[in-house]
Design brief:
Protein name: DRBM domain-containing protein
Helix content: 40-55%
Number of strands: 3
Structural class: alpha+beta
Number of domains: 1
CATH architecture: 2-Layer Sandwich
CATH class: Alpha Beta
Organism: Panaeolus cyanescens
């Protein structure tokens, strides 16, 4: 997966117009009881519907994972693609 998932998703949505970019929202939670390797959960929503979820020890990594999943959903690409 891309280490710049959030940037790629923002760029893609921007290319579709301001309404598409405005449809993007995030939910972020830090767990104090989770195992040390899974502290952050970030959920990427498009029009209020969950399209990606990332769990990682760092917030940025969790957000990028969620963004990669959302980008793959929106473009029909597999998450491993780097287009």
């Amino acid at each position: 997966m891309s280490k710049r998932g959030t940037s790629r998703l923002n760029t893609y949505l921007s290319s579709l117009g301001t309404e598409a970019l405005a449809s993007l929202s995030w939910s972020e939670n830090e767990s104090r009881v989770a195992p040390p390797n899974e502290r952050w959960t970030c959920i990427c929503k498009i029009h209020g519907i969950e399209r990606g979820r990332g769990v990682a020890p760092r917030k940025a990594a969790a957000k990028d994972d969620a963004a990669d999943q959302a980008w793959a959903f929106l473009t029909g690409a597999s998450e491993g693609e780097s287009t």
